[in-house]
Design goal:
CATH superfamily of the largest domain: P-loop containing nucleotide triphosphate hydrolases
Radius of gyration: 18 Å
Structural class: alpha/beta
Number of helices: 7
Bound molecules: adenosine-5'-triphosphate, magnesium ion
Oligomer: single chain
Strand order of the largest sheet: 6-7-8-3-9-10
Shape: globular
CATH topology of the largest domain: Rossmann fold
CATH architecture of the largest domain: 3-Layer(aba) Sandwich
């Protein structure tokens, strides 16, 4: 078993309700994300919100990012637990957007421009070259988004958010539309990003149970409850406690697939 400790509270969603007109989409959503420490390694957090299509994941995503206000309830972030403001959380939306008339380099520069402190052109070049090298994008920096594959564009979009310096990055369906090889690449990228900083926290919203759980230390299941309108967190899965977290070969583990099967039945 890998040794770990849960420490400070990093994000807390309290009693979130979301209604559109009279239709309840989210009901009493509560969860907490803690800073995970492991001796001797920089260990960020990867948390997932799993639920079937149409259940309200993207709406919850927008609430967590401060992009829309819930009908009631709060989201607080950081060790100080302040209410979340739009812009404090990096966002990689379901249909990620890059500026199509700008090169990949310029798109990444925008991430740095939004990091809250001035970065000189020379510093920017060094940082961007470094990330491009790490994530196989060196040959693409002068291209435009339309000249990249979907997977490459997605990596740019994720790195752009990393460059803003936000510790929290929300990703909506990061695996959709990717082939299995590319999913593995995104896996690797997300693990590297999560572990850039002790407080880095990725929140992945997805219906792709296998790929999402394989990366996560904790998963929250968003599902309907019998007789009640709206989705809520029906289960918290602690993959650390189960011994499934931080294992690069977890997708080959039978017990892990049993868990995936079990979750499928509950969505
Ligand atoms: N602006 C809106 N006004 C009214 N209803 C909305 C609005 N936006 C979303 N909804 C409804 O909220 C519900 C949840 O939508 P949401 O996009 O969060 O689903 P999802 O879980 O992300 O689905 P998917 O996995 O397909 O992306 C849907 O029934 C949708 O029709
Ligand atoms: Mg969605």
């Amino acid at each position: 078993m890998i040794e770990y400790k849960k420490e400070g509270l990093l994000l807390k969603a309290t009693d979130i309700n979301l209604k559109y007109d009279t239709r309840q989409i989210l009901r009493d959503v509560n969860f907490e994300i803690f800073d995970i420490h492991r001796p001797g390694v920089i260990q960020g957090q990867v948390v997932s919100l799993i639920g079937r299509s149409g259940i309200g994941k993207t709406q919850l995503f927008r609430i967590l990012a401060g992009l829309i206000k819930p009908t009631s309830g709060t989201v607080t972030i950081g060790l100080e637990q302040k209410p979340v403001q739009a812009g404090e959380v990096g966002v990689v939306p379901q249909n990620y957007i890059l500026f199509n008339h700008r090169t990949i380099y310029s798109n990444l520069r925008i991430g740095l421009n939004n990091c809250g402190k001035p970065v000189s052109d020379k510093q920017a070049k060094d940082i961007i070259d470094d990330y491009a090298k790490k994530f196989d994008l060196t040959d693409h920096l002068k291209k435009f988004p339309a000249q990249l594959s979907g997977g490459q564009r997605q990596r740019v979009s994720i790195i752009q958010q990393v460059l803003t310096g936000n510790k929290f990055i929300l990703l909506d369906e990061p695996f959709s539309g990717l082939d299995p090889l590319m999913k593995d690449k995104v896996d690797e990228l997300l693990i590297q990003i999560a572990n850039l900083d002790e407080q880095s926290t990725l929140i992945i919203v997805s219906h792709d149970i296998i790929n999402t759980l394989a990366l996560s230390d904790t998963a929250f299941i968003l599902a309907p409850q019998r007789g009640k309108e709206g989705a809520t967190i029906t289960e918290v899965i602690d993959l650390m406690e189960l011994g499934f977290a931080w294992n690069p070969n977890i997708k080959a583990d039978h017990a892990f697939h049993d868990l995936v099967h079990d979750i499928k039945g509950k969505l």
